[in-house]
Amino acid sequence: MKGVLAVAMKELRQIRRDRRSLLILLLIPLFFLFLFGYALNFDIRHVTLGVQDRDQSADSRALVAAFSRSAYFDQVATIEHERDISDLMNRGSARAILVIPEGYARRIGRHEPVDVQILLNGDNANTATTVLGYVNGVLTEATAGLNVKANASTIGVASRVWYNPELRSALFLVPGLIAYIATISAVVSTSLSIVREKESGTIEQIRMAPISTLAYILGKTLPYLVIAQTSAFLIIFAAMSLFGLPMRGDWFTLFIVVGVFLLGGLGTGLLVSTVAETQQIALQASMLLAFLPVFMLSGFIFPIASMPVVLQYVTTVVPAKYFLIALRGVVLKGVGLSEVIAPLTALAIFATAVVGLSALRLSRR
Amino acid sequence: MTEAALAGPPVIHVEHLSRVFGAFKAVDDVTFDVRRGEVFGFLGSNGAGKSTTIRMLCGLLAPSSGRAAVDGIDVGRDPEGVKRRIGYMSQRFSLYELLTVEQNIEFYAGLYGLTGERLARRRKFALEIGGLAGRERELAKNLSGGWKQRLALGCALLHEPPILFLDEPTGGVDPVSRREFWRLIDDLSAAGTTVLVTTHYLDEAERCDRVAIMHVGKLAALGTIAELKSMFADRPILEVRGPDPVGLMAWLDKSPLIEKTSLFGTAVHAVLKTAATPVEQLSRALADAGRQVESVTPVVPSLEDVFLDVVDRLGQGAAA
Q: What pLDDT sits at residue A167?
């Protein structure tokens, strides 16, 4: 245990003197959050809208106003002639065209159903689907007050989305970003710290000392756990103030979940350091290890349920998957420790496995 | 080294020690003993197996076969026990550049569990050996080679090990610092510390009590400097100087009087086949052949002569 303390103390002193690296460990994650947080956004605002109002009535103008009022649409053109429609769409000046037919006000006045036409740019299927959703939303709201005779046989659906009522993609993406950023800083910190000792030859001196590999590894990991935990909570706070990430669960559970996840990341860094001989290789390996599984296989962006079966099996060894389940659970659903015990156990198993494996590899003679 | 210490049991006992890496035999059936207080040198070119041997003796590398005991402890069975009894310093001086002198000492003391009064005493010792009293707060990276080397030595000696391993300890250090360093080694040896040192500097090997010459993993020769040089007792070495040393060497190689030759700077060292051959006979033979020669003088064999001879003979043995 004295060895652990000596190594940890030395590590902290080194970090303190190496201000630049410390700043990088603490601030790069924040920078990443800004970068990805604003770039990775599936929400669509200010859809360019062209309007052809063939009715030119008070009611039709009210409908156009409903579109303009919503934050989703910006009316960019008023269309007189039919041929202008294809022109606007072809040039990309408008992503959506609203055509209000003649007789719109008359039918509304008679409380009869009436169809309006929406033309959508479908070059990005995702965007088109989202815009269609907005159109329906605006139309539903606009027609609510019109007292159109409802067909008696229609089953109305009153839908309500839990946890993310506005379906903001940020709430879905930011936990994934936190996982990605935390993984990078954790993996990089331990791998670089050990490979640096390989490069300077000091690791040889430590091997010659009567200190167990486990004590060495613990002494190496603990200071970085503190730093990584600090950095992770910095980005969690930033995500809350910048992207409106809620905190519905309790901080203690969050602390535990983040801590165990980071331990796995730090362990992965140790494992990298047993293979890499130079800091450059360690850095590249760490980035790759953090990037690929977290982005592709954790359910960060691509839902695991829609992956090929083989890949779904692969995801069972991706710690970020369990972290995301637990993190989304705590911050979005407000669940407590007892509800995240399963993913937490998976994370703990992963952390123990990688730390144990690197201890084995480091102590091999 | 005192005579009494020489009489004691060996501090390091090595028996048929081998280590293979795949198909490569890094250390091949090496056997020797080191006595308490001895300065024991390992001489050999790069890749001769010196460092691998030291790493096995430090408990860092498990032997493939054979056994070795350090201070009575088997290195294969109890490497941790060995580590507590040895100090180790390598060419790279293994200091933390971003830590101060004092913090480096504290760290290594912490690894060996030094506390309280003992820590204070050994800390003082390490600062003295490094000549760094008053410079405790300087960063290690700002020290020059010689200071770093002595601080590293101080750190390696913090836990008062009876045995000290030095793996090419003077690499990258200026000649004055090298001399000072060897004076420290002599002091340690006089105080009873056994020192095992690898080097490829022949002048450093000359300062050792005994030298083991390693070549391609094998122990090629072992003995005091005088013992090693005695292999030339019945084969005198003549130094031949002339304007064309390479041509001279070629001619000497063909002479029936000469066993072998080697080039020493601008002179040729020629080993006579027997001590019975007078110097004049060779001079005459050279003159008869019309070779231009400035001087032919008998010389005392140097360690380099010994080294080349040993390596040569091992090579012939392997070819036979």
A: 64
Measure the CA–CA gap between B96 and A223, rounded to whole angstroms: 17
Which pTM value belongs to this model?
A: 0.78
Q: Do B83 and A210 touch (CB under 8 A)?
A: yes
Phi and psi of B211, rounded to 5°? Answer: -130, 135
Contact B90 A201 (CB under 8 A): yes
ipTM of the complex model: 0.80
Co-location of A180 and A259 in the same domain = yes
Question: Are A206 and A1 contacting, i.e. CB atoms less than 8 angstroms apart?
Answer: no
Structural domain including A111 reads: 47-144
Largest CA distance in chain B: 79
Q: Using CA atoms, how far apart are residues B256 and B233, in angstroms rounded to an integer? A: 19
CATH for B3-223 (3.40.50.2000, 1.20.1250.20, 3.40.50.300, 3.30.70.2740)? 3.40.50.300
Domain check: are A136 and A185 in the same one? Answer: no
Minimal C-alpha gap between A221 and chain B (Å): 16
The answer for B 95-124 residues in CB contact with A (under 8 A) is 95-99, 103, 106-113
pLDDT band with cut points at 50, 70 and 90 for residue A148: low
Instruction: Residue B168: name the closest of B87, B84, B109, B88 by CA.
Output: B88
List where CATH 3.30.70.100 sits in chain B.
230-319
Architecture of domain B230-319: 2-Layer Sandwich (3.30)
> Which residues are within 8 A (CB) of A307 and not within 5 positions of it... i.e. 6 or more apart?
A297, A315
Question: Are the CB atoms for B234 and B218 separated by under 8 Å?
Answer: no
Could you give the CA distance from residue A209 to residue A207 in angstroms, rounded to a whole number? 5
Burial of A19 (0-12, 13-18, 19+ CB in 10 A): exposed
Percent of chain A past pLDDT 70, that is, above it, reads: 92
Q: Are strands B163-167 and B86-90 parallel, antiparallel or unpaired?
A: parallel
pLDDT, tens digit, 9 for 90 and up, residues B207-217? 999 999 999 99
Position A159 confidence tier, pLDDT thresholds 50, 70, 90: low
